[in-house]
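Q: Mind making up any chain with structure tokens?
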Amino acid sequence: MARDSVIPPGSFEEILGWLHPDREVAGQMYVQLYHDLIKIFEWNQCSDPEGLTDDVFDRVGRKVHDLRKTYEGDPRLFFYGVARNVIKEAKKPKPHVSLDETDLPAKTTSEAEEAEHMLQECLHSCLQKLSKEKRDLIISYYDKEKQAKIEHRTELARQHGTSVETLRVRIYRTRGILEQCIKRCCDRMEGK
């Protein structure tokens, strides 16, 4: 699924303004909506409920400018509708071909190791291009798993004097920069 991954600047502020004119109330609604969406994805047994919730906010963020002008009713219902579509996409059976009937050139262990080594080199190189603050933050953000991950990210947000949602947006932007750098690096190393 190829999508435009660029979220327009200011979309977070527009989402808050769309949820409620009072910024304090809008912030509370945002946090509650975020937790509600995570629960919905958990109830539907989706893997990575937090990541899918981020995806919902990303999708709405790309359209919020136009939505504010045309959508009537409770904006949270629009988020739930997007979540329903994300669930359908996540549960859609992936087309597959039996490997028994296909002659695929198998990557040798050395080719796979070489590809992994190239990816590691590019990741290391691209991490070094980030500022020390961004590098330390993104490494720390992805450091833990499961419940420890949630608690760790809450603590990281507190340490940086921000909300978990704002921290998530910072990480999203940094990760986008990092992914583009890694892709360019791998393409260069492969001679493309």
Q: What stands out?
A: Residues 164-190 form the longest helix (27 residues). The two ends are 23 Å apart (CA to CA). The chain has two domains: 11-91, 119-190.
